Give the backbone structure.
Amino acid sequence: MSDPLQSDSAYRLETQAIHAGTAPDPLTGAMLTPVHQSTTFAQDGVGKDRGYTYTRCGNPTVAALEARLGELEGVLPACAFATGMAATTSLFLAVLRAGDRVVVSDVVYGGTVRVLQQVFDSFDVRADFVDTSNPEALRTALQEPARLVFVETPANPTMKLTDLRVAAELAHAAGALFAVDNTFLTAALQRPFELGADVVVYSTTKYIEGHNSTVGGALLCRDEELAERIRFVKNTAGTTQAPWESWLTLRGIKTLPLRLERHSSNALEIARFLEGHELVETVHYPFLESFPQFELATAQQRLGGGMLAFELRGGVDAGVRFLESVRLCTLAENLGAVETLVTHPATMTHGSVPPAQRRAAGIHDGLVRLSVGLENVADLTADLEQALKEVAGGVPL
Ligand SMILES: *Cc1c(COP(=O)(O)O)cnc(C)c1O
């Protein structure tokens, strides 16, 4: 039997997504990695274990997921976490010390802002939120020492992009580590390590698992010492991913490249539909020619991904009416799965970000975010069209 953790890096992404990190079970021949739903592993003698002792510190099902994520990204096996926020928090715990400063994209996942401003602030860690889409702003911010530069691209929810190659160079020139939250695109559409990232952060809750069934997270890196430190923090703080969640995530990943292609083609078609609609003021989607960073998008990303945001004429009232009129699309907080979801960032995902900071980051009260799923795109467009008709009926333009 082949070693389940052997390197599959000779294979291409679609093949890795299905096979990397797993092999038929040596005991039974089971095709799929079993769910090792066990806290504890018997030892062969005093000080003699078979690589696993206690599931907080390691579990074979979780290890298979970690190996697969590492292969997809072309780096060391990942460290899997209970949630995306457990991954982000564990990264901060692993690399930041009291007195440190972290430079963060001004538009990021709301939880990342919250953990820095309302948890790490009391440990004397300072976070500065900077428009990392503007290299000059990042260069200026890095004139003061920083331990870590943390960016998200495309940014949630405005889709603003950061040039990863440029940001990596600036971070490294300033002696900072460079981390990228790659949740929106995944290794299938964007390759941060090839552009200079030191760490990649995932909420596997989103596209990686892809079916709205689990919460999970992961950190990836290529430096052994950093990987060791991250694993130590995970074992110590107990931010561990569970075996059943890992099993579901391993299954979800098999179709990751395929899903992201369809998420992207559906999203592009919907973005074009919205852009042509008289009630829509602006559409933010990286692969639209009208997107201000279209050239960077097509250079840095393989496709546009499944996320888009738009603003309706008629502001908040129109936005709320729209959100309450969709039928096939679901009003919900999550993103990145097969079902199409609509979100109102100002009250939902980014409700805890201070209003002034939110508006400065371009998250206006009328902004609607769409996580485009894998339903038939004509059905989706028809649903959006009927919801827009409801808006037209209720709001004077
Ligand atoms: C959802 C999300 C997170 C946090 O992940 P959880 O699994 O919800 O803890 C972090 N970053 C981005 C970009 C996300 O979308």
